[in-house]
Amino acid sequence: MKKQEKFLNDLLIKGLVDARKLAGVANATKLPNGEVGFCLMCLNGDTLYIYDTNLKQEVGSLLYTVYLKEVTDLKTSTFMLNSYIKFNYDGFDYKLVDCVHKELYKAIREENSK
Question: 106: domain range?
Answer without folding.
Answer: 3-113
